[in-house]
Amino acid sequence: MSLLSGIRQTVRKATGRPGPRLLTVKKAWYLTPNMIRVTFAGPELEGFPEGREGGNCKLMLPDTGEDRDTFAARLTSGPPPVRRTYTVRHYRANVHELDIDFVAHGDNGPASRWASHAKPGDFLGFMGPSPSKMTDFDGDWYLVAADPSAIPVAAAALEAMPRDAKGVAVFEVTAAEDAQEIAAPAGIDMHWLVKPDPMAASTQQEDFIRALDWPEGRVQTCIAGESTVVRNLRAFLHQEKKLPREDTYISGYWKIGLIEDEHQKAKRAEG
């Protein structure tokens, strides 16, 4: 048993939660011009929970040039590595393979920098995942909206829906070529809006959603992305459309001008 495996077992016994896994890259490639998919594989994924597509996870990133043993020691005894929040895109239990998608913005940010240089044999730390964000599909109609940061959670929700589901999905991406193939039900109308500058404020998603012919019946949502966009959509859905909060997964994943630690602090302050 490796030191890290022993620590994982100790953490699980003490807290009921698994400790960190040290994952190894099998391959990495550009899924679209602005999205990198990294596939991890290996025995470290033994026991990974199934059915968690769309769940959050914490990725712990090695320093440039850091070797595997040094990083493994840091995972257990510190100093702690940089952490970033990501989403499980796929897990294939039969071959112990896990896909995580990264928005590609060069070396601007530690996770994008790591992903843009990732190659077979590279590694990082992993904690999680949380449960999937949408597990009960009882709606008459579904509304899904996301920017690149939230495409994985939105895609996971669409792929988990009943095949006779009806609704609309609206994605805001950096370029038209960033549209992805998603196994959504045939009754979901898919729309891809282009916003070339991800750091510029945008009302495209809100404008599009406000212009929809609102359906009769129960509406369920999966909406995530930039916090200002999400806040405005939350107000529209809860205050104007009176959707019950239990029918709306809606979450800010990032905020223009803030790094993740600052954004998480701001979210906690807002309650």
Number of strands: 11
Q: Can you tell me the residue ranges where pLDDT is under 50 for at least 5 consecutive residues?
A: none
**Arrangement of strands in the largest sheet:** 1-2-5-4-3-6
User: What is the average of the pLDDT values?
Assistant: 92
| Cα radius of gyration in angstroms | 19 Å
Shape: globular
- Quaternary structure state of the chains depicted: single chain
- Helix residue percentage: 25-40%
What about the largest sheet? 6 strands, antiparallel, barrel
How many H/I helical runs? Answer: 7
Please write the string of helix (H) and strand (E) elements: HEEEHEEHEEHEEHEHEH
The end-to-end distance, rounded to whole angstroms, is 42 Å
Percent strand: 25-35%
Helix-strand category: alpha/beta
Topology:
Layout (H helix, E strand, L loop, with lengths): L2 H13 L5 E12 L2 E7 L14 E6 L6 H10 L4 E11 L4 E7 L6 H7 L6 E5 L13 E6 L4 H10 L5 E8 L13 E8 L9 H7 L8 E8 H14 L7 E7 L5 H11 L1
Parallel strand pairs: 7-8, 7-10, 8-9, 10-11
Antiparallel strand pairs: 1-2, 1-6, 2-5, 3-4, 3-6, 4-5
Helix pairs in contact: 5-6
